[in-house]
Amino acid sequence: MKFIYPNNGVLSSASSELDSAPAANITEIHANNSWIADTEDSSPTITIEVESGSAVLIYKILADAITVDVKTVGGSIIMSGTWTLTQAEAYGVEKHIDHVWLDYPNQAGTHLITVALTKGSYYYTGIGVIIAGKVRGIFTDPNYGDFSLECEDHSLLIQLAGGVEHPISDNIQRIYPATVNIREDEEADALNRFGKLVGKSKPFACKMHETALPKEKYLLYARFDTPPKLQPTAYRKNTITFTLKEFL
């Protein structure tokens, strides 16, 4: 488990944008305040400049595919990754991956990250937020099943006469209550200190598990809804509980 905080990325350039969804939104904190490329741009790109760091999370992606290139300021490739985002439906339900994470060799100085989208079947393409920078951790992964997933639907149902319901659709937000068991006291204390550093109001990128599949299920742009709570127990096992809430 690891976190990216703070976001060291700032906008460098974009191939196009809509006036209503400019490229500057890419490093604004709200994931639903997106950068949207011009509809005529079939393969839009956006580049951020990163002060220092070793990982990047691209969140709320609208595209059929994505390529991420981490480069030196001079243009040499440090690391690249490509993902197909639109996949075959399973059990009659469409599947679209809308966030990806790339780890790369630690860069102590300024570097660039360019994200290229493949438009495919999408009329609009874009990204909610890009978070790049220093990795906090790396912490022990939760045991299997110790992350539970809840979805909070912010839609409204207005009761009309005769029991008729009028729906007003809104965001559905992912929530992950978590339990982590850590034997090393200093590691447990470090996770607790991270919780105090960011509190409940500061969003961060989180890779909740290194090996659990599917990988995208365990990527989250979040805040602590309940900050880490440390409970030392017998046999040098520290139990830490917290709740991650998707930051929209």
For this entry, what is the oligomeric state of its chains?
A: single chain
Distance between the termini: 21 Å
Query: Describe the biggest sheet?
Result: 7 strands, antiparallel
CATH superfamily heading of the largest domain: Galactose-binding domain-like
Q: Given the C-alpha coordinates, what overall shape results?
A: globular
Count of structural domains: 2
Physical arrangement of strands within the biggest beta sheet: 13-1-18-19-20-17-14
CATH architecture of the largest domain: Sandwich
User: If helices are DSSP runs of H or I spanning 4 or more residues, what is the number of helices?
Assistant: 1
As for the CATH topology of the largest domain, it is Jelly Rolls
Q: How helical, in percent, are the residues?
A: under 10%
The radius of gyration is 19 Å
Strand content: over 45%
Helix/sheet category: mainly beta
CATH class of the largest domain: Mainly Beta
